[in-house]
Specification:
- With 166 residues, this protein is of the alpha/beta class.
- The protein has 2 domains: 1-40; 42-165, Rhodanese-like domain (Oxidized Rhodanese, domain 1, 3-Layer(aba) Sandwich).
- It contains 7 helices and 5 strands.
- It has helices spanning 4-40, 50-59, 71-76, 88-95, 114-124, 135-141, 153-165; strands at 45-48, 64-67, 83-84, 104-107, 129-132.
Length: 166
């Protein structure tokens, strides 16, 4: 029985060493993914919470608020004064005539579509882009004002024009 104990001890030590190495490897992978995720956001894009979004809109009175959700989502409710920009064609139509220094505020349902939209606008040359981190769902959950009125005639025409473009 005694000869088995040293063997078991060696096996156990190797197992512990393997666990430590694998734990360090997993930590390294997670850490590197966090670093890479930070690099994905372009300079000039600010992902902000609801309160900061409101503060920045109030500080930058000459801004544009773009809703990059689908038309059906937009029709059901939106942040007041938001323009429907749910397709790349509409986004281009709005932003082609804008000054690059004009602040842009973007949101979608959960922040999944607004980040890529912000990246493309930053690549286009816009310098002040604010993305609503929690998205429209977070806005609604926080009890903030929502415009549920029927979209204006101009907005409906823009939607129809976009359908004709496609």
């Amino acid at each position: 029985m005694k000869p088995n104990h040293p063997v078991k001890a060696i096996v156990c030590m190797k197992f512990v060493r393997i666990r430590k190495i694998s734990s360090l490897f997993i930590f390294f992978l997670i850490f590197s993914q966090l670093i890479l995720a930070q690099d994905e956001i372009e300079p000039g894009i600010n992902i902000v919470d609801i309160e900061e979004f409101i503060i920045q809109m109030n500080l930058n009175q000459n801004h544009s608020l773009l809703d990059v959700r689908t038309w059906m989502e937009y029709k059901k409710g939106r942040i007041p004064n938001a323009l429907f920009a749910g397709t790349s064609e509409l986004m281009t139509a709005y932003t082609d005539t804008m000054d690059f220094d004009k602040p842009l505020f973007l949101y979608c349902a959960t922040n999944f579509r607004s980040k890529p939209a912000g990246r493309s606008l930053a690549a286009k040359g816009f310098k002040k882009i604010y993305v609503l981190g929690p998205g429209f769902y977070g806005w609604r959950a926080a009890g903030k004002e929502i415009d549920t009125s029927r979209p204006s005639r101009v907005q409906r025409k823009m939607k129809k024009l976009n359908i004709l473009i496609q």
